[in-house]
Amino acid sequence: MSGHQETPAGTPEVTRLLAEWVVELKGADIPAEVRREGLRTFVNWVGCAVGGARHETVDAALRAVAPFSGKADATVLGRPERLDAAHAALLNGITSHVLDYDDTHLKTIIHPAGPVASALLALSEIRPMSGEDFLTALIVGVEVECRIGNSVYPHHYDRGWHITGTAGVFGAAAAIGKVIGLDRQKMQWAFGLAASQSSGLREMFGTMTKSFHPGRAAQNGMMSALLAEAGFDSSERAIEAPRGFATVMSDKQDWNEILGELGTRWESALNSYKPFACGIVIHPAIDGCQQIREEIGERVSDIASVHLTTHPLVLELTGKRSPRTGLEGKFSVFHAAAAALLHGDGAPTAFTDDLVNDASVVDLRDRIDATADATCHEASVTIRVTFKDGSTMDKHIERTIGSSEMPLTDEQIDQKFKVQSALVIGEAATEKLLRLAWRSAELGDIADVARCASERAVAA
Amino acid sequence: MSGHQETPAGTPEVTRLLAEWVVELKGADIPAEVRREGLRTFVNWVGCAVGGARHETVDAALRAVAPFSGKADATVLGRPERLDAAHAALLNGITSHVLDYDDTHLKTIIHPAGPVASALLALSEIRPMSGEDFLTALIVGVEVECRIGNSVYPHHYDRGWHITGTAGVFGAAAAIGKVIGLDRQKMQWAFGLAASQSSGLREMFGTMTKSFHPGRAAQNGMMSALLAEAGFDSSERAIEAPRGFATVMSDKQDWNEILGELGTRWESALNSYKPFACGIVIHPAIDGCQQIREEIGERVSDIASVHLTTHPLVLELTGKRSPRTGLEGKFSVFHAAAAALLHGDGAPTAFTDDLVNDASVVDLRDRIDATADATCHEASVTIRVTFKDGSTMDKHIERTIGSSEMPLTDEQIDQKFKVQSALVIGEAATEKLLRLAWRSAELGDIADVARCASERAVAA
After folding, report:
1. pTM of the predicted protein model
2. A234 near B CB under 8 A
C-alpha cells in the first residue's frame, strides 16, 4: 500500500540539496585545516582498527561471516584473514570501535570514522583510488553523518538510538557515492537505501552488538551506494519526508543543521580523539588521576581515600561500584580512577578482566567515591586525595585532554596509535604503518595502507 | 557510554520467554490445521518468488550484489544465477514481494513469508533439513514475526515503519535459530541482533526499496542467528527493555500479544494470500469488477460510467487518478477497476506499463469515480455501473476473495501459482514445481524445492 504523504509546506528539499552538495564538491573546496583534521581522523582510525583486531568480538564475527565471504579482495586490518570488500567493511567497523578508543564528534557522541573509513578503505581494494580522493570522500562522509546527527540530536539519541549506527550509514553511503561518482539522483537513492537500513539500539551497549553497529553501518552504507549505482531506486526525499528518517526516528528535525553553511561550517573538523579507551564522560577523572600519579610518585601507596566531584552524567553512566569484567570496568569511574592512579593507564590495557579483578586495584577502587555536581562541566573534574597521614591534595581539571579545548596533538595520536597497534602487529610494523598513514594524501593507491596494516598480522 | 536502564517493574521477560518457547517447541506440538496453513504459506511463497524473478528490481539488485557473493551454494528462485545463502535470502525476499502478490497477516499488514521462507530455504541449501523441520521452523518464524508485529501495531506502522521489514527480521532470526538448534540464551542474542537491525520505512513504498525490506530482513535475520551461534552476544532483553525494540520504535507495547496463549493461539494460521497483485485495500473493487464482467459479458463496451463506494482507506492509499507506470497502477483503484472490467485481470499482468497506458483502459478509467464511506467494511465495496442506455446495475461485495472470511482455496492458490510461475519457467516446470511444493512435508531435503524452482530458468 502507498505510504505517500506530501512534505509539509516550507520543508526544504533536504535530501536533494545534500546530495547535490556531495556530488558537486571538489577536493580543492575543502580548506587545508579541514583536510588536516580528516587526515588525523584517518590515522587515529587505522590505529584503532589494528588495535581492536584481536578482540573476541572480532573472532566471533569472523566465525559467523567468513563462510559467506565472496572473493578475498580486502583486508581485515590487523588480521591475516581477507574477505570481500563488503564484509571487510563490516569487520573493520567492528575492530575500530570495539575498544571504545576511537574518535568522537562531541556534539552528537557520534564516532564518525568507524562507518565511513571502514567502508571507504575496503572499497579502495577493489576500486583503486588515490589518497587525495580517499580523504575527500572521508571528509564528505563524516560531514554528512555529523550533520544528519546534529539535525536529530539529542532527541534521537535520548529515544534509544545508537547514533553512530543510525547516522553512520548515511555517512558511509555519501563517502562511497562520492568516490564512485554517483550523480545527484543516484546519491538521493543511496540516501534512501541508507535511511531504510538506519538502525542500532543503545540497549546493546555492554555487548558485542554495540561495535556491530558501526560495522553494519559501513557495510550497509557501501551497499546503498553500490545498489544505487546499479539502478536500484528509492525515495528521493528519504531524510525529510513525513515518513522519512528524521520524523520517524526523532521528534526533533533541524534542517538547518544539515543544509546551513554547507562548505563553510565543517563538522568534520570538530572531530576529537579519545585519549582513553572508554566513554568520554570518564576521561576527566582518568586525566586528573594520571596527573596526580605523576606528581606524587611513590606516595600513591599512601593514599587513604579519593573523592571525585564530577558532572552528574559520570555517575549516571559510569557509576558501577563493583565491575567484574574489563568491559564493565569501562562503566566504573572508580575502577578507571584506581587504574590511572596505580598504573597511569587509560589504554585498553586498563580495561582487561585481569586488571579489573586485581587485588590492589580493587582495594583502592573501594576507597574512591564521587559526588555529582550539576555545576561541574562535562570535561571537568575536581579530585581530593586524602593520604594516610591525614594530609590532602586537590587536583582540578578545567578541561580534560581530548576535549575540544585540549585536542590530542599529533604526537599524542602517534603515542596512542603505537600503544595499541604494537600489541597486535609488533613495533616495527607499527612504525611503518604509522608513517604510511600520515602520508595518505600523497599515496597513489590508498589501499597500500590496508595491506600494510596486516603484513605482520597473525591469527589471534 | 552505557545505555543500561532498569526494565520497569511488572514488565515480563518477553525476550527470554519467547526464546524459550521457540527453542522448546516440537513439530508435533503444532496442530494439524496450523501445519496445513504453514504449507499453504510456503506454496504461495514459492509461486510469488518465481513469479517476481524477472522484475527489473531483481536485475538491479543482482548487478550490485553478485560481485560480493560468496560460494554459489544457493538458488535465486526462478533465475539461473546462484549466490551464497545469505545473498540468496536477500534476493528471494525481494522477488517474492516485488509484485505485491504475496501473503498478508491481515491484523498487522505484515507479509510474513518473505523474510522467513527466504531465509530458511536459502539456508537449507547449505545445512540440509527435512521438509518437516523446515515447516516447523517456518511456522515458528511467522508466529514470532506476527506476534511481535501485533504487540506494536498500529502505532508502529502509523509512525512510518514498514512492519514487514521491522518485524520480519525477528521472524527470520527465530526460524533460523530454531532450525540450527540455538539454545535459549543464544536465541535471545539472535533477537538482540535482530532488534539492532530492525528497519525499513514506508516512505520507500512505490520504489524498489520496498521489496528490499523483506529481503534484507531475511538476510539480516539469518545472520543474527548465525552470529549468535558463533558466540556473538547481545542484549538478552532486546524486545522489552526501556531502550529496546518495542519502546524505541513504537508508543504501544502489548506484551500479551507476544506471550499470551503461546502454542494455542496461532497467528501463523491467520495468514492470507492475495488474489490480486496489489495492496489489499483495492481487492474488493477488483473482485466486484471481475464478477460484473462475468455477468455482463459483451456489455462491458456499453458501460458509460462506474461509481465505487469504498472504505476511506481505499482513496487515501490508492486514489491515484492518472497512473503512468505499472507500479503507479497499483496505487490507482480506477486503473485496477478498469483492468478488471475490460480484461478480468488482477494478476501482475494487470499492472504493466503497457496496460496502464492502454487507450481503452485509460478511457474507461477516466469514467470511474469513487466515494469514501466510513461505514463500508475494508473487505467490502458497492459498485454501480451505468450503461450508455441509462440503465444501471449494482454489485455489492460483502467480503472480498482473499479476506479472512473468504480465504483462497487450495485450487485458487494453484491457479495463482501457475499464472505467475509459467511466465518465468514455463508450464511444464511450473506443474512439476507446484506438485513438489505441496509435497514439502514429505521431503527428506527441502532444498529440492529451491533447485526445482530454477531448473528451467533463463536469464531475463
Report:
1. 0.95
2. yes
